[in-house]
Amino acid sequence: METVYDWVTVAIFAGLVVLFLQRSTGDEPPRDSMLHYLMASAGCAVANYFGNKAVAGGGIVYHLIAVAVILGTLAFVHVVLRPLDKPRR
């Protein structure tokens, strides 16, 4: 946990874990697949990789790739996993 990218990607991953645990203990059948969580967590790993390369002296291109992957991962979580949807009653 040395770079900003480490903290950001771990925070996103922790949110994914909480969302998964919340939905797996609910009364309703799950509306999302394990593959969705796998893709989102892979996005965190890829963003962290490029971010750490950027901090190690890789250049601005690696920063841009890392930020783009982080934003893409957050967009994927928002659109596919829909963490802000209210449960049906």
Describe the secondary structure blueprint for this structure:
Blueprint lengths: L3 H21 L9 H25 L1 H22 L8
Beta strand %: under 5%
Number of helices: 3
Percent helix among the residues? over 70%
The shape, in one word, is elongated
SSE succession: HHH
Number of domains: 1
Most strands sheet: none
Q: Oligomeric status of the shown chains?
A: single chain
Number of strands: 0
Cα gyration radius (Å): 15 Å
The average pLDDT value, as a whole number, equals 93
Structural class: mainly alpha
Transmembrane segments: 60-81
Keywords: Membrane, Transmembrane, Transmembrane helix
Summarize the structure.
With 89 residues, the protein is mainly alpha-helical. It contains 3 helices and no strands. α1 packs antiparallel against α2 and α2 (34-58) runs antiparallel to α3.
Structure description:
- This protein has 89 residues and is mainly α.
- Helices cover 76% and strands 0% of the residues.
- The chain contains three helices and no strands.
- The protein has helices at 4-24, 34-58, 60-81.
- The radius of gyration is 15 Å and the shape is elongated.
- 20% of the residues are buried.
- The model has no long low-confidence stretch (mean pLDDT 93).
